[in-house]
Amino acid sequence: MNLTTPDSTHSGTPKTRAARAASKSLDNAVPATAPGVASVTQLSAKLSEYLTPSELKKVKEAYRFSDEMHLGQVRKSGEPYISHPIAVAEICADWKLDAQAIMAALLHDVMEDQNVKKEELIERFGAPVATLVDGLSKLEKIEFQTLIEAQAENFRKMLLAMASDVRVILIKLADRLHNMRTLEHMTAVKKRRIAAETMEVYVPIAHRLGLNNIYRELQDLSFSHLYPMRYRTLSKAVKAARGNRREVVKKILESVKATLANAGMQAEVYGREKTLYGIYKKMRLKHLSFSQVLDVYGFRVVVDSFADCYVALGTLHGLYKPMPGKFKDYIAIRKLNGYQSLHTTLIGPYGTPVEFQIRTQEMHRTAESGVAAHWLYKSGESNLTELQQRTHSWLQSLLDIQQQTGDSAEFLEHVKVDLFPDSVYVFTPKSKIIALPRGATALDFAYTIHTGIGDHTVAVKINNEAAPLRTELRNGDIVEIVTDPNSRPSPTWLAFVRTGKARSAIRHHLRTINLNESVELGQELLAQALTALNINPDLPQPTIEKLLNESSAKSMDDLYAEIGIGKRMAALVARHIFGLIDDDLGNLPSPHHLVPAELDPVTIYGSEGVSVQLAPCCLPIPGDQIIGQLRRDQGLVVHTSDCMPAKRLRMKEPDRWIAVQWGTELNRRFDCRIRLLINNEKGILARVAAEIGESDANITYVGMDEDEEHVMTQLRFTIQIKDRVHLAALIRNLRRVVGVTRVERERA
């Protein structure tokens, strides 16, 4: 993910700081009407409405400094670069952010573009402003192994700064909004890249913080650059429909206003049009044409009090018939981002579905401004206080994930999972409401309560009935977790948990508990890779010190562990070591000209723990031809050589595959899937199960599929066996069972 802003590359060469002209006054900037020249007149007017004279003076100093630093720098549009920080500050002023935030908005690019040090900003403008600017600046001076790693680390830095001060992300969203508004000057490739990043990261963050106005605008701007033809076509269709439906909208507005007035209610009623992206998404999800999307228009009813919301709802249901299943009470159970409203869909004139949102003025402020309402309306309403608490709780979870996460890419993966806007609301046994992402499981619930509870979970009850840990939760479920202090997380949990907190906590535990196994595997893999380059695995101490210094590993054991869990590739580390030795000796051939020695396969015993996993797609057993895949943070995953998913993965990442072989002493049993076609007759299942038991195999799962005529039945078993010889004997025995017509091993 690339976090570069559209204007990080600019035309024109900035002058050196020593040669910069004297700075301008904030009040004396040229008006915006002058083409290509930045203006701060409008910004000054907005700030003077709520900042004190002393605060305005500090903002002016920040403007002068930013103007001096960016002197000679221009945007792709040809405008002076200072116009961008001014525009960002103006968006922040619309939220009435404090003076420190406005100063940071004006200065947000000086560290990144002009090499201004944080110490200088502290000296000039104070530590809070400098910290905000630092949180907004990217890490371009650090060298990363890959572009993806650099992008992920930039994003992590921004989110962690946001966790300590939410103003960081507000300024960043203002920055992104202005860049998206002026994206037309970029190349088509950059437009798509920046728009995709905005849709993937910044849109869900804006939604998560309840900033609905920015959320909708960023969504539509991203849509217009990702799919310009679709955007233009849909825009024309909406304009045409707007004229056709004007009379319907007018009739509904008049009827609703009159009905509420007759009920003695003071209410503001107005129509609103769905965003183009909202219409497009509905067409895609439900496979509809534009003409089939009937609820392009919705209506908002804003009343005076909490109780009036429900009175208005009843009044509207008396005016138009409600559609069954289309009522949602987000007042009683508000959304994760603090949003509150009653939603109902009614059958309006001419049979057209019409959506209504009913809320109070306070709810409306929160719905439009989200967490920014803290600055806009400092009146101490309880719902805003709760919104701040919810936001703080989510930001705190970012810090929890950071502490448990191995690297930036993993951190980013976990956070993106938690940015999904759809939510499910469940209850603890004491009736406390817990909000989780859609698709979250009972185990996610346990980790949401506390990491310690999640780690020790052994069972769960949903609505007083026992259920599997992987059960997806539904709205209204009452969830009770059963724990055991001796229980520990299982690597299989990673296959079904949904939340970033649960995933990072499980991975952290597995890394910590199974460190020795990972170290041993990593040491063996690196030794093999070094041998292939004709390098003695017993490295001299100077080479080890250089390697640790350049790889940022604390010790060789740390390096081995990272190789063992797939975070680093042994072949790349070996080539790095070759380069270090080459630098010292100066007389070795390039690794590209070496003839690699034949690599000895890694030996698999099946008892290595989570450092070595048997792939669930093919479930290899001793006797199968096997191959190993090094996966990031999952160690070595073993597949059968003829596994089709493995073959597809090898084509994508051939360098992550190594030779493996079975050991000679295997003192455990291995899972294997078999499928039987049987006649549907009395007692057949009992006969098959008995034969499996007599063949010294254990059954761990059984499933059954019947055909429509109920003549033939397909049985599926997961069994535990010793090896291929044991499996072959079992299959022969099952084929002799009366009523069994076919037996075969099942593959993915």
TrEMBL record:
<feature type="domain" description="TGS">
    <location>
        <begin position="422"/>
        <end position="483"/>
    </location>
</feature>
<dbReference type="InterPro" id="IPR033655">
    <property type="entry name" value="TGS_RelA/SpoT"/>
</dbReference>
<feature type="domain" description="HD">
    <location>
        <begin position="81"/>
        <end position="180"/>
    </location>
</feature>
<dbReference type="GO" id="GO:0005886">
    <property type="term" value="C:plasma membrane"/>
</dbReference>
<dbReference type="GO" id="GO:0042594">
    <property type="term" value="P:response to starvation"/>
</dbReference>
<feature type="domain" description="ACT">
    <location>
        <begin position="673"/>
        <end position="748"/>
    </location>
</feature>
<dbReference type="Pfam" id="PF02824">
    <property type="entry name" value="TGS"/>
</dbReference>
<dbReference type="InterPro" id="IPR006674">
    <property type="entry name" value="HD_domain"/>
</dbReference>
<dbReference type="GO" id="GO:0015949">
    <property type="term" value="P:nucleobase-containing small molecule interconversion"/>
</dbReference>
<dbReference type="Pfam" id="PF13328">
    <property type="entry name" value="HD_4"/>
</dbReference>
<dbReference type="Pfam" id="PF13291">
    <property type="entry name" value="ACT_4"/>
</dbReference>
<dbReference type="InterPro" id="IPR043519">
    <property type="entry name" value="NT_sf"/>
</dbReference>
<dbReference type="InterPro" id="IPR002912">
    <property type="entry name" value="ACT_dom"/>
</dbReference>
<dbReference type="InterPro" id="IPR003607">
    <property type="entry name" value="HD/PDEase_dom"/>
</dbReference>
<comment type="function">
    <text>In eubacteria ppGpp (guanosine 3'-diphosphate 5'-diphosphate) is a mediator of the stringent response that coordinates a variety of cellular activities in response to changes in nutritional abundance.</text>
</comment>
<dbReference type="InterPro" id="IPR045600">
    <property type="entry name" value="RelA/SpoT_AH_RIS"/>
</dbReference>
<dbReference type="GO" id="GO:0015969">
    <property type="term" value="P:guanosine tetraphosphate metabolic process"/>
</dbReference>
<dbReference type="Pfam" id="PF19296">
    <property type="entry name" value="RelA_AH_RIS"/>
</dbReference>
<dbReference type="InterPro" id="IPR045865">
    <property type="entry name" value="ACT-like_dom_sf"/>
</dbReference>
<feature type="region of interest" description="Disordered">
    <location>
        <begin position="1"/>
        <end position="27"/>
    </location>
</feature>
<protein>
    <submittedName>
        <fullName>Guanosine-3',5'-bis(Diphosphate) 3'-pyrophosphohydrolase</fullName>
    </submittedName>
</protein>
<dbReference type="InterPro" id="IPR012676">
    <property type="entry name" value="TGS-like"/>
</dbReference>
<dbReference type="GO" id="GO:0008893">
    <property type="term" value="F:guanosine-3',5'-bis(diphosphate) 3'-diphosphatase activity"/>
</dbReference>
<feature type="compositionally biased region" description="Polar residues">
    <location>
        <begin position="1"/>
        <end position="14"/>
    </location>
</feature>
<keyword id="KW-0378">Hydrolase</keyword>
<dbReference type="InterPro" id="IPR004811">
    <property type="entry name" value="RelA/Spo_fam"/>
</dbReference>
<dbReference type="Pfam" id="PF04607">
    <property type="entry name" value="RelA_SpoT"/>
</dbReference>
<dbReference type="GO" id="GO:0008728">
    <property type="term" value="F:GTP diphosphokinase activity"/>
</dbReference>
<dbReference type="InterPro" id="IPR007685">
    <property type="entry name" value="RelA_SpoT"/>
</dbReference>
<comment type="similarity">
    <text>Belongs to the relA/spoT family.</text>
</comment>
<dbReference type="InterPro" id="IPR012675">
    <property type="entry name" value="Beta-grasp_dom_sf"/>
</dbReference>
<dbReference type="InterPro" id="IPR004095">
    <property type="entry name" value="TGS"/>
</dbReference>
